Amino acid sequence: MKIAIIGSGPLGLEAAAHFDSLGAAVTLFSRDALGGSVKLAATHFPESGEFLSHHLTQTGLDICGLDQNEIKSFKDYLENYLTPIGRSLMERGLVKLADVTRVHKRFLSLGETPMGKDRLHDLFRVIYSVDPKENVLKQMQENPETFEKLGQDVLDSLAMPVESFEDFDIVLDATGVFSNPNPMGAGQSFALNEKSLAQNCPIYYGLQGIKNFEEITSHHKTILVVGTGEIAAATLAVYGDWVYADPSRSLKIVTTEMNLFEKLSRAIGREWIFEKARGVIERNKETLISKIMEFEKAVVAWKELPDYERAKLAKPAEPRSQVEFFTGYSVSSVDRLLDREGMFVTCESVNFRNPNLSEDKELITISADAIIVTTGHVKDVTAYRGLQLSFNNGLDYPEVRDAKTGESGFYFLGATKKEHGDRYSLAEGLNDILAIEKDIMKFFSRA
């Protein structure tokens, strides 16, 4: 039985190790470095993640030679658990560094089923693209004389990505949803001008706001975060120390929720990141209170000055909050003016969302140097248009039950949508691997 696993995050690695241990011929397709988004968590929250010790498999522990209690943080999980699993898979030739562009049946069209048989009777064809640059450079170093005889056109053609394919009995998609973030407008739609401005302006989506932390903070001082889900909380936590290190910096958050991080606060298993975000909020309150007390003392001292001295000195400036929150608002447009730096985000609210909303607050404009959009994610199924998938009523994400889809033998391992309070935990993913095994064994026997 040949199994293709697409995606090399925790669930992809666990699935590859699991089915390899059962005797299946496994190929793990990896576009990026092994580990997925855990690498970001290990970088920015290395000591967090105590809960991970409860979400390890015996197969993984056997590969690593570890005890369950030795994994106590994201750093431990990445360096001492996932990395050894990935290294083991690579050493055994089970990892293919390639970008899967599409998957379809070898012969069957969408509405076709073999007479008297299941569609699983036909193999899956996995089309993938490999960047040949490294291989070409290696060959150039080994055979410089041969390449010197080739024209530039030939050399350029050798560096172009090339598509290949391989056929499989079973395909698991473990890429998750983080590669397909939602735009910032209402109803998961683009705000006015967002799509065009995003091509040339500092607008970042999903995890890109954390991945590009150094780039963003080295060029910008006022950052707007749209959304208050898990990624928004992580973004707030990552940028917290940066914003307080310089009084000229500011961080602004706009959300449709009336109470900041309300849904996240109720999400089981997400307590750790909620607490990180709440710590930044509490620090902002304490800092502002301290500044207000200093301001009041300065005003009193300024008023007590003789008139001739007070006339020479400006009244102390009222302190401002370096972290601002705009709750109950939807983003309607993004603009960039020719005569001013930065971007201007127009937000709207309505009294059925906020009963105490005053007319002058129904429409507000927020300025920002950079925008980080964290309004959720939806599964990108572009690569699977050749498969029989079922979708929700809105047709915006595939329906999945115990990882099974409408196409026999094709599974989604991981979330298919992720918004405020959406729940898909690592534990659920590990359970789904066992559910996939059970389903596969209806058609195949153990090696």
Summarize the structure.
By secondary structure, the protein is of the alpha/beta class. It has helices at 10-21, 38-44, 58-64, 74-91, 133-142, 144-148, 152-158, 194-197, 208-211, 213-219, 230-244, 262-265, 271-303, 307-310, 426-440, and strands at residues 2-6, 25-30, 95-97, 99-105, 124-130, 162-168, 170-173, 203-205, 222-226, 250-255, 323-327, 330-335, 343-348, 363-368, 370-373, 377-378, 410-412, 417-418.
Structure, explained:
The chain is α/β, with parallel strands linked by helices and 447 residues long. The protein folds into 2 domains: 2-179 and 377-446, FAD/NAD(P)-binding domain (3-Layer(bba) Sandwich); 194-373, FAD/NAD(P)-binding domain (3-Layer(bba) Sandwich). Helices cover 34% and strands 19% of the residues. It contains 15 helices and 18 strands. The strands form 5 sheets. Strands 3-2-1-7-17 form a 5-stranded parallel β-sheet. Strands 8-15-9-10-11 form a 5-stranded parallel β-sheet, covered by helices on one side. β9, α11 and β10 form a beta-alpha-beta unit. α2 packs antiparallel against α4 (74-91) and α11 (230-244) packs parallel to α13. The longest helix has 33 residues, at 271-303. It is elongated. The relative contact order is 0.15. The model has no long low-confidence stretch (mean pLDDT 90).
